[in-house]
Design goal:
Order of helices and strands: HHEEHEEEE
Radius of gyration: 14 Å
Largest sheet: 6 strands, mixed
Helix content: 25-40%
Shape: globular
Strand content: 35-45%
Strand order of the largest sheet: 2-1-6-5-4-3
Length: 130
């Protein structure tokens, strides 16, 4: 995490907390931190969704619960957190364990876009292109 920031915004604090909770309590616990500050019509484009877009708290929860129930394991690691206007960008990596036993690990950037103080959109791209 960036140690240079002295006065962090609520948006940045929320994203850092979600990553910390995810690492210590599990992916779904981290997701709940995000959804607590998300618009009801928030849009998520998950890394593991093959381009699918999810809209709303219920759709986001259902997607991830289904993936976990099927045996997918997701571990996020944030290496650098920074703000760009109303967005928070996290450079890091994601390790995805597949139900059949294989895994992939990718270096990616997540973009968390806020609108009117609430999370409106979450997307990802290869690292450095968020």
């Amino acid at each position: 995490m960036d140690s240079m920031a002295t006065a962090e915004s609520t948006n940045l604090d929320t994203i850092k907390a979600a990553f910390d909770v995810s690492a210590n309590q599990g992916f779904m616990a981290g997701l709940e931190i995000l959804l607590a500050r998300a618009r009801e019509d928030c849009e998520f484009r998950p890394y593991i969704a093959s381009g699918q877009s999810l809209r709303g708290h219920d759709a986001v929860r259902a997607f991830y619960r289904s993936a976990i129930k099927a045996g997918t394991d997701m571990r996020l690691r944030g290496a650098r957190f920074h703000e760009d206007g109303e967005s928070v960008i996290v450079d890091g990596s994601m390790r995805v364990g597949r139900p059949a036993g294989g895994f992939s690990e990718s270096q990616i950037s997540w973009r968390y876009k806020f609108r009117d103080g609430l999370l409106a959109e979450v997307s990802w791209s290869p690292r450095g292109r968020a």
